[in-house]
């Protein structure tokens, strides 16, 4: 009996040991097969930075801690971004989130995720944070919102900028110069007295001088169809057939012939302000207090004068849209990321300025002082924040950003001034209107070819207006601009009803 009992006990103990071993194996198998962290692929515009991977790692630390995800942060150069996005969309390449310069076109094609349902729960905080006018402008004709607008200034105005040193030297009252023709005596004076300065700088994309007369584009500026923003019954017009356009072009031509405008204007690539270049007049699109940012970009103090109305246009409110790919495998995580980016100051400041202590420091007022190097004269010189630069208008809520300090600091109450500014902005009569151009796609392509042929030279004064403008309009007609205009007018009439 004792030998039998020992045998039975041995069998039982062996079985227990084997079961225990199996349990441990199953436990280990469970831990090795745990769900991997969701990683979102994110694309935005801007030159890739030396320290982009370093910033990406820091972003992922915060995202893991707060919402349990990571991202792969990709930046595509300014001249390449549109083509790369078109290619990715056409080839159905995988990505989750992107900056969308062609927001409306692809929303109509179903490329972006519908967001409305998420505003009730996952994105409720973000939805309530962003100004309602932005959401109104982002809404498409089907009643859905397909992207998250950057919460910034509601009206993007053309600002004419001048070096503060010359303004003080000649006691110039910049707010007295609000039309192109009014600039002539100033430009003559600078040309005569300050030969080191270029009187007026333009590039091949030129500037929206037509907005000074109350016009806004119905679509992209490569389709030269515009409408008066505040006239509820205004028709759609080819802007280059208007008196205002002829007047602007004649003035620019005269300035070019007088040597005020850079001779390479029709060829010069658009882009950020050139640091250290001596220019008297430049133009930039922005909101209130943009001079501190532009002063830091140029390396010397400037003063600005806004010359276009405070109108919230569709183009302005859709200028910084972040979208989610409709084919994403991670819609919930993408929404959580966008919600956090628009409501969490730590994450938003990291995207904008990089890593504290590496790319910037905070002064005693909590303002950002960018890391710098020095130029050949030993002057402090911001250099891409020491290796990283955020593209502010593309990446979420501005009102939770630290303001800029340093040589040209922002006012400490900058965001309060922005709120006051936004409260005074007037909505365009066509805010949110988005024409469906699918039926005239061939004409649109042909019009853009003509636009590229003539627009840069006309809008920089580089050619004889009386000869080239009629050719431009003739070829626009041949390309089908009348058909496109009538189609947009028909849709606008229905929309107004």
Structure description:
The chain is globular. 41% of the residues lie in helices and 14% in strands. The protein folds into two domains: 38-150 and 319-347, D-Maltodextrin-Binding Protein, domain 2 (3-Layer(aba) Sandwich), CATH 3.40.190.10; 157-309 and 435-496, Periplasmic binding protein-like II (D-Maltodextrin-Binding Protein, domain 2). Strand 7 (215-217) and strand 8 (225-228) form a beta hairpin. The longest helix is centred in the first third of the chain and has 31 residues, at 2-32. It is of the alpha/beta class. The chain has 18 helices and 18 strands. Strands 2-1-3-13-4 form a five-stranded mixed β-sheet. Residues 1-20 form the signal peptide. Keywords: Signal. Residues 430-496 form the DUF3502 domain. InterPro entries: Bact_solute-bd_prot1, DUF3502, SBP. This is DUF3502 domain-containing protein.
Notable traits:
single chain; 497 residues; alpha/beta; D-Maltodextrin-Binding Protein, domain 2; 2 domains; 18 helices; 18 strands; globular; disordered N terminus
Topology record:
Elements: H1 2-32, E1 38-45, H2 52-67, E2 69-76, H3 81-90, E3 97-99, H4 103-108, H5 124-129, H6 132-138, E4 147-148, E5 157-163, H7 164-169, H8 184-193, E6 198-200, E7 215-217, E8 225-228, E9 237-238, H9 243-257, E10 279-286, H10 290-298, E11 302-306, E12 311-312, H11 314-317, E13 322-324, H12 331-343, H13 345-353, E14 360-362, E15 368-370, E16 372-374, E17 380-382, H14 384-387, H15 414-424, E18 426-427, H16 441-458, H17 465-479, H18 481-496
Parallel strand pairs: 1-2, 1-3, 6-10, 12-18
Antiparallel strand pairs: 3-13, 4-13, 5-10, 5-11, 7-8, 8-9, 14-15, 16-17
């Amino acid at each position: 009996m004792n030998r039998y009992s020992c045998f039975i006990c041995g069998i039982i103990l062996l079985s227990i040991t084997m079961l225990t071993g199996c349990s441990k194996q199953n436990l280990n198998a469970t831990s090795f097969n745990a769900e991997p962290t969701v990683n979102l692929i994110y694309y935005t515009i801007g030159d890739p930075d030396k320290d982009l991977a370093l910033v990406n790692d820091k972003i992922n630390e915060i995202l893991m801690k707060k919402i349990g995800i990571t991202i792969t942060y990709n930046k595509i150069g300014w001249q390449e971004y549109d083509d790369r996005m078109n290619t990715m969309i056409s080839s159905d390449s995988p990505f989750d989130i992107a900056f969308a310069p062609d927001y409306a076109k692809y929303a109509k094609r179903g490329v972006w995720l519908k967001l409305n349902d998420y505003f009730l729960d996952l994105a409720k905080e973000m939805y309530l944070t962003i100004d309602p006018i932005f959401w109104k402008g982002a809404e498409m004709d089907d009643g859905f919102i397909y992207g998250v607008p950057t919460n910034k200034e509601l009206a993007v105005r053309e600002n004419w900028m001048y070096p503060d040193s010359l303004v003080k030297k000649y006691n110039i009252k910049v707010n007295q110069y609000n039309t192109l023709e009014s600039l002539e005596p100033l430009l003559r004076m600078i040309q005569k007295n300050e030969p080191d300065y270029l009187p007026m700088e333009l590039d091949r994309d030129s500037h929206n001088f037509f907005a000074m007369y109350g016009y806004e584009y119905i679509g992209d500026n490569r389709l030269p169809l515009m409408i008066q923003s505040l006239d509820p019954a205004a028709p759609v017009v080819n802007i280059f057939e208007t008196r205002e356009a002829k007047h602007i072009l004649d003035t620019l031509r005269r300035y070019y012939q007088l040597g005020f405008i850079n001779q390479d204007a029709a060829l010069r690539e658009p882009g950020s302000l050139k640091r250290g270049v001596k220019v008297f007049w430049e133009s930039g699109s922005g909101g209130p207090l943009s001079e501190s940012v532009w002063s830091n970009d140029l390396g010397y103090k400037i003063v600005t004068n806004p010359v276009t109305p405070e109108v919230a246009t569709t183009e302005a409110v859709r200028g910084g849209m972040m979208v989610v790919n409709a084919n994403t495998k991670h819609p919930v995580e993408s929404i959580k990321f966008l919600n956090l980016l628009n409501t969490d100051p730590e994450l938003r400041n990291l995207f904008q300025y990089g890593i504290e202590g590496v790319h910037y420091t905070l002064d005693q007022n909590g303002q950002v002082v960018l890391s710098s190097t020095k130029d050949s004269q030993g002057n402090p010189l911001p250099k891409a924040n020491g290796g990283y630069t955020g593209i502010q208008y593309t990446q979420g809520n501005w009102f939770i950003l630290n303001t800029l300090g340093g040589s040209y600091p922002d006012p400490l109450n900058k965001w309060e001034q922005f709120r006051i500014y936004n409260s005074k902005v007037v909505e365009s009569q066509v805010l949110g209107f988005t024409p469906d151009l699918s039926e005239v796609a061939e004409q649109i392509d042909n019009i853009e070819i003509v636009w590229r042929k003539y627009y840069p030279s006309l809008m920089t004064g580089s050619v004889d207006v009386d000869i080239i403008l009629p050719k431009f309009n003739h070829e626009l007609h041949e390309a089908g601009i009348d058909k496109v205009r009538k189609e947009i007018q028909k849709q606008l009439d229905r929309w107004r009803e």
